């Protein structure tokens, strides 16, 4: 399953001269092509100013991480299901002593006293407080101050250089070209993921007068009984003490217990009196200061349907992440479930990730959660970024963590997006890499483009169809369009090559190569899909119709959790990273193929749903009996 994390990132190389000592030629390590929208160059940074230079060291054996994961995840592997411990992962990927000593020696040779240089306990990064003048000389760069329209300032450079013999040991340096700045908004709820209107969020068509339960109306109103019928999910869990299922929410998104109970009384009476197991990460809590669909819709949806489909016998963990002031990012959540990630490849990037204790005051004052939370066997997240929102390094670093979780037997699911081939908020790419509503280049979402997560698209019951038909579903084309396409950052993993090659050869998209990644060598998404239209959700005391891949991910997660239950009941392990398995020949026909619909965006009709895998609905929707039978047959 060879796939380079950043195989499609092109970095130009240039040789420059530098004052002695020079052990090898200097090359461009990272370069930025444009200043992001909303920012402007203000001035050169003061040469005497001090900046905290953070050098992220390359981890050992990272070039083999996909092979290690494939070894425990492919159904034909002799080591299938033999997942690693956290300790084994830490020992395998720690930076080498050679990397630490080589970079440290380079700093000393360039005039930095050894006592100024600090190596992290995990050896993941080297820290040194350095003047701008020293940093510019060290890396042949120029540091500037940029100002956002909000007034916030940011220090960055356009490019920086490293000696050839050093660059092989370094992933990146901060501060540098990264410009994915997290803007601080102190008088409002935290910005970023979880904030209304940011990233992947569910959509509503408004309230409905009364709740309905009839299977005959599933083309207009989706309820748990509809989903059980569509995917033949008839199963009572028996290994609930061994099993685990988690959904991740980002403050200020929060579920309301009163909504859960309203939903339970109408659709899932076994949930009456039940609530999710709340796990607070970095000050997260189920806030009630802000209410309404924009604040409760996502979490209400995830909790109500996730809990219903695994039944009241199976506890569901709610990872509530971030406080009301700082908020949180995916990396803050990953820090909590894997302590080594807090410093992996340099640690978090606080221009994107939240910093705890809150350095600005008024927020969570406790320590950052690092390795304090046990990951569930299946984790569903209905939030996401546009791939272009983030730097290639940032996405690669996070993607590697999903691979590590897969090695530990964790199934990671992410929604694929709601704007078809366009990015969140219906923006597309411009030729210079920026995003706008007038862009014409297809704009995939992240983390779905990471080859180590399972990306989930959306379907809908066809108008006037019933769940009793042979194939009642099509790609979702009401209110939202299933996100899908091809990554601009990540290479195609070998597990999906046969399926994607067949699509490209049999149904080649009729678009110029200038508006989509037509190389046939990039990661394709989504992997699977599930219904994402007309969900009846209790929100703030009323039932609303909800749409989005935000619906599809927790439903899929619940189905895989029930498969884990059956395996755990017979002393087998969890299914872990599922992609190599579901794309394998042994699982052919285990998903309901979706062949109707498309995913418009960027001024086009997008891609078409076709026989076999397609970049609209992936392999199709889950067929629980077939998936259960196939997974029970594996060791």
Rounded to an integer in angstroms, the radius of gyration calculated over CA atoms is: 24 Å
Low-confidence stretches: 4-20, 180-193, 343-365
**Between the first and last Cα atoms, what is the distance in angstroms?**
20 Å
Helix content: 10-25%
Q: Choose one word for the global shape.
A: globular
- Mean pLDDT, as a whole number? 86
Q: Helix tally?
A: 14
- Give the helix/strand class: alpha+beta
What is the strand tally?
28
Mind explaining what this structure looks like?
With 635 residues, the chain is an alpha+beta fold. Helix content is 23%, strand content 20%. The chain contains 14 helices and 28 strands. The strands form 9 sheets. Strands 11, 12, 13, 14, 16, 20, 21 and 24 form an 8-stranded mixed beta sheet that branches. β6 (143-148) and β7 form a beta hairpin. α1 (65-73) runs parallel beside α10, α7 (257-267) crosses α8 (293-310) and α12 runs parallel beside α14. The longest helix has 21 residues, at 549-569. It starts with 25 loop residues before the first strand and ends with a helix.
SSE arrangement:
Elements: E1 26-31, E2 39-44, E3 50-57, H1 65-73, H2 86-93, H3 97-109, E4 117-119, E5 125-131, H4 132-139, E6 143-148, E7 153-157, E8 159-163, H5 164-167, E9 170-174, E10 203-207, H6 224-230, E11 245-250, H7 257-267, E12 277-281, H8 293-310, E13 317-321, H9 330-337, E14 378-381, E15 385-386, H10 392-407, E16 411-415, E17 428-429, E18 435-436, E19 445-446, E20 454-461, E21 473-475, E22 485-491, H11 497-506, E23 522-525, E24 528-531, E25 535-539, E26 542-547, H12 549-569, H13 579-582, E27 591-592, E28 621-622, H14 624-632
Parallel strand pairs: 11-13, 11-14, 12-13, 14-16, 16-20, 20-24
Antiparallel strand pairs: 1-8, 2-6, 3-5, 3-9, 4-5, 6-7, 10-26, 15-19, 17-18, 20-21, 22-23, 25-26, 27-28
């Amino acid at each position: 399953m060879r796939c380079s994390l950043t195989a499609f990132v092109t970095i130009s190389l240039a040789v420059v001269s530098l004052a002695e000592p020079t052990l090898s030629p200097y090359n461009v390590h990272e370069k930025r092509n444009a200043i992001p929208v909303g920012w402007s160059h203000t001035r050169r940074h003061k040469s005497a100013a001090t900046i905290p230079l953070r050098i992220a060291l390359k981890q050992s054996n990272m070039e083999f991480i996909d092979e290690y994961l494939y070894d425990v995840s492919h159904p034909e592997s002799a080591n299938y299901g033999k997942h690693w411990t956290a300790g084994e992962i830490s020992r395998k990927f720690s930076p080498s002593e050679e990397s630490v000593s080589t970079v440290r020696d380079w700093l000393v040779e360039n005039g930095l006293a050894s006592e100024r240089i600090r190596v992290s306990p995990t050896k993941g990064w080297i820290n040194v407080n350095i003047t701008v003048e020293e940093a510019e000389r060290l890396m042949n760069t120029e540091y500037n101050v940029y100002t956002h329209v909000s007034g916030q300032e940011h220090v960055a450079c356009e490019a920086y250089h490293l000696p050839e013999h050093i660059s092989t040991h370094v992933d990146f340096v901060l501060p540098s070209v990264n410009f994915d700045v997290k803007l601080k908004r102190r008088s409002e709820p935290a910005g970023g993921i979880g904030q209304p209107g940011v990233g992947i969020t569910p959509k509503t068509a408004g309230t409905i007068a009364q709740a309905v339960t009839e299977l005959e109306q599933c083309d207009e109103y989706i309820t748990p009984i509809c989903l059980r019928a569509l995917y033949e999910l008839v199963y009572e869990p028996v290994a609930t003490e061994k099993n685990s299922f988690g959904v991740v929410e980002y403050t200020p998104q929060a579920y309301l217990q009163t909504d859960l109970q309203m939903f339970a009384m109408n659709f899932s009476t076994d949930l009456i009196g039940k609530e999710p197991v709340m796990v607070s990460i970095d000050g997260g809590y189920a806030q009630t200061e802000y209410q309404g669909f924009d604040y409760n819709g996502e979490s209400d949806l995830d909790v109500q349907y996730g809990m219903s489909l695994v039944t009241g016998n199976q506890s569901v963990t709610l990872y509530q992440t971030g406080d009301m002031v700082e908020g949180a990012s995916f990396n803050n959540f990953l820090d909590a479930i894997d302590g080594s990630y807090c410093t992996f490849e340099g640690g978090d990037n606080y221009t994107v990730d939240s910093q705890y204790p809150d350095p600005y005051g008024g927020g969570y004052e406790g320590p950052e959660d690092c390795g304090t939370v046990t990951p569930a066997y299946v984790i569903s997240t209905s939030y996401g970024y546009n791939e272009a929102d983030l730097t290639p390094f940032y996405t690669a670093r996070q993607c590697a963590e999903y691979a590590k979780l897969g090695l530990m037997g964790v199934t990671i699911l992410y929604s694929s997006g709601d704007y078809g081939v366009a990015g969140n908020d219906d923006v597309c790419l411009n030729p210079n890499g920026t995003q706008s509503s007038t862009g014409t280049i297809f704009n995939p979402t992240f983390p779905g483009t990471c080859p180590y997560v399972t990306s989930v698209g959306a379907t809908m019951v066809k108008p006037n169809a019933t769940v009793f038909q042979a194939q009642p579903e099509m790609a979702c084309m009401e209110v939202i369009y299933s996100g899908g396409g091809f990554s601009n950052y990540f290479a195609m993993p070998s597990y999906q090559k046969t399926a994607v090659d067949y699509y490209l050869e049999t149904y080649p998209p009729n678009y110029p190569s200038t508006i989509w990644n037509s190389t046939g060598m990039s990661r394709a998404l989504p992997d699977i899909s599930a219904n994402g239209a007309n969900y009846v959700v209790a929100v703030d005391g009323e039932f609303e119709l909800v749409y989005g891949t935000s619906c599809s991910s927790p439903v899929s997660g619940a189905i895989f959790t029930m498969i884990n239950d059956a395996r755990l009941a017979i002393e087998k392990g969890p299914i872990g990273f599922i992609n190599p398995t579901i794309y394998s020949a042994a699982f052919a026909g285990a998903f309901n193929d979706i062949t109707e619909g498309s995913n418009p965006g960027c001024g086009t009709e997008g891609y078409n749903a076709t026989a076999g895998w397609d970049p609209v609905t992936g392999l199709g929707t889950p067929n629980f009996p077939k998936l259960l039978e196939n997974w029970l047959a594996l060791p």
